[in-house]
Design a protein that fits this description.
Elements lengths: L1 H14 L3 H10 L6 H9 L5 E3 L3 E6 L12 E11 L10 E12 L8 E18 L2 E14 L9 E12 L4 E11 L9 H4 L2 E8 L5 E9 L7 E10 L6 E10 L11 E10 L8
Antiparallel strand pairs: 1-3, 2-3, 2-13, 3-4, 4-5, 5-6, 6-7, 7-8, 8-9, 9-10, 10-11, 11-12, 12-13
């Protein structure tokens, strides 16, 4: 718990240094941001530590099943990044350390058990993309590990080399895709790819005012059938001066958590989210 508290504290401290980068992104909704502006945002020493994926705390019941104390739970995610080198790498790329932690918390049960805790560290190279002096997104090559930190029959783990891309189609719509080459090393989850899949893709919308956003994400499970894990998200910023959003997430499919990766889940949760300044990674 001390580790979680420390990460939460660091995450909160990282929100405010990103306001300068957020202002650059806000300007991009109204006018073209030149190459130098975006590179300054990447190069800025204040941005060495920051947010990676969405950081949220959400709570809610299952869909299609009778809500109980056991299946109505909280889910929180902490996700941060740390730039590892002061110098810019060849092709004007950047080396980062990534860390994401997700926790499923049964807050309605006695003793408030945390039923599944998933750890996802990684290291990767990120390159911002420009076309005719316009910032259009970024591409990353990431080496990742994911596990639940448990032993014996409850142990789950796998590794993957991922290529991820985020591309702005216009000032409000971004498409993203992530493909991975996996190797499963967990003795108790050899069939993991049947449920966690081999690639994912999606679309994100943010209004010009930055107040409202929505996204859809699809992860293709292994097999030729049209079997996808689906995530729908909606967010509304509470204030123009802050980075806190009312957040709604709907998950439908398998693999939401590592421990019960092969159990179907349909869950609707609502809560608070803190978002990265440019766009969220997945």
């Amino acid at each position: 718990m001390r580790v979680i508290s420390l990460i939460v504290f660091l995450m909160a401290m990282a929100v405010f240094p990103h306001r300068a980068a957020a202002q650059i992104v806000a300007q991009s909704k109204e006018e073209v941001v030149d190459v130098d502006s975006v590179r300054r945002a990447f190069d800025d020493n204040r941005s060495y530590f920051g947010l990676y994926k969405d950081n949220y705390f959400i709570f809610g019941p299952p869909i299609g099943y009778k809500p109980t104390r056991e299946n109505t739970n909280a889910l929180f995610q902490i996700s941060i990044s740390q730039r590892l080198t002061r110098s810019v790498l060849p092709f004007h790329s950047y080396l980062y350390l990534f860390y994401t932690q997700r926790c499923f918390w049964n807050v309605l049960e006695k003793s408030f058990p945390m039923t599944d805790l998933n750890f996802n560290p990684g290291v990767g190279i990120t390159k911002p993309l420009f076309v005719k002096d316009r910032f259009i997104g970024k591409v990353s090559l990431i080496l990742e590990h994911e596990s639940n930190g448990r032993d014996s029959l409850a142990s789950r783990s796998w590794n993957r080399l991922s290529i991820a891309g985020n591309i702005w189609l216009d000032p409000t719509i971004m498409v993203h895709c992530k493909v991975w080459a996996p190797w499963v090393d967990g003795e108790n989850n050899r069939d993991l790819l049947d449920y966690m899949g081999l690639y994912q893709f999606g679309l994100t919308y943010r209004s010009l005012s930055q107040r409202f956003g929505g996204s859809m994400r699809f992860t293709k499970r292994r097999g030729w059938n049209l079997n996808y894990n689906t995530v729908l998200e909606f967010s509304y910023k509470l204030s123009n001066n802050d980075n806190q959003y009312l957040f709604v997430q709907y998950y439908n499919g398998y693999g939401e958590g590592m421990l019960a990766y092969n159990k179907f889940c349909s869950q609707l949760r609502v809560g608070i989210c803190i978002k990265p300044p440019f766009f969220s990674d997945y």
